[in-house]
Amino acid sequence: MRALRVSSLSPDLSGVALAEVPDAAVAPGKVLIRVRAAALNYPDLLMTRGEYQLKPPLPFVPGMEVAGDVVAGDGFAPGTAVVAGTRLGGFADLVAVDAGAVREKPGHLSYAEAAGVGAAYLTAYVALVPLAAVQPGEWLLVHGATGGVGLAAVDLAGALGAKVIATSRSAAKLEAVARDYRLAASLPAPGFREQVKELTGGGADVAFDPVGGDVFDESTRCIAFGGRLLVVGFTSGRIATLSTNIPLIKGFSVIGVRAGEYGRQFPERGRENQDAIWRLAADRRIRPRVHAEVPLADWREAFAAMQASEMVGKLVLVP
């Protein structure tokens, strides 16, 4: 089978190549899936550089979430359309996945749409529901709102009844988001501080920040007293630092978000979170936006778009 294999770590993808490897095989407790779509996530890019928390031994095949058809395995009839969280191995023709991480694909979602639900929406859900406890009517400031995780937070916030202020460096991409999702406002980032304070009457109740750097710094200046600042990632490339007198004086909390680790630390809650996002998907209360479906053979194009933050929504690799 074909698989996108990382044989060495580098900043320029020079250690990544599409290769012929032995077929994935079914085993007890596993489900073998023929991949129809595999979503690209920012951690996949970071793993090719050795810059992500998960550092698998070389060589490895990235790809955290897939949708496809069951070939064989426990609990599913061959041919069943499914979605699965893989953590690794998704960028291939076939992948063997723990049976507990597989569920039937909602019929109204395409393979590409279904592949884009798991990681992004789980991150958004864990951040906004169990960690930040967002309430209807609260002001939610979403940074990086045109990327996969940020857009999932925008979409989910609508289901939660929050008032969303979306930010991005790209006005054109924000316009695309505003066409598809209900926003209270869309603002450039950085440069949003005063407008957020004016719109909200003092500050956002919650800030969702997968960007970091200057955006994080500015968020600390427009978060409400008693607010929650969610640290989701650092796509800007700079990990911000914070003097502790600022949250002390302003009375806000800084909360780290690692949705996968949250589920590993609290397995029962993790299952509840997974069930919750797929119920929302099945009820059509959330729906991922697919920016593009890219053939697996053209993986460099997708990774370059991810690195340049060119997409609005999810990039999906199609074997």
What does this structure look like?
The protein has 319 residues and is an alpha/beta fold. It has eleven helices and 15 strands. It has two domains: 2-117 and 288-318, Alpha-Beta Complex (Quinone Oxidoreductase, Chain A, domain 1); 120-261, NAD(P)-binding Rossmann-like Domain (Rossmann fold). Helix 8 links the parallel strand 12 and strand 13 (253-256). The strands form three sheets. Strands 3, 4, 5, 6, 7, 14 and 15 form a seven-stranded mixed sheet that branches. A six-stranded parallel sheet has the order 10-9-8-11-12-13, sandwiched between helices. This is NADPH:quinone oxidoreductase family protein. It comes from Sphingomonas corticis. InterPro entries: ADH-like_C (IPR013149), ADH-like_N (IPR013154), ER (IPR020843), GroES-like_sf (IPR011032), NAD(P)-bd_dom_sf (IPR036291), Zn-ADH-like_protein (IPR051397). Residues 11-317 form the Enoyl reductase (ER) domain.
Which architecture name of the largest domain does CATH use? Alpha-Beta Complex
What is the CATH topology assignment of the largest domain? Quinone Oxidoreductase, Chain A, domain 1
Q: Which regions contain 5 or more consecutive residues with pLDDT less than 50?
A: none
Count of DSSP strands: 15
Mean pLDDT: 95
Largest sheet: 7 strands, mixed
Order of helices and strands: EEEHEEEEHHEHEHEHEHEHEHHEHE
**Total of helices:** 11
Strand content: 25-35%
- Over the alpha carbons, how many angstroms does the gyration radius reach? 19 Å
**Total domain modules:** 2
CATH superfamily of the largest domain: Medium-chain alcohol dehydrogenases, catalytic domain
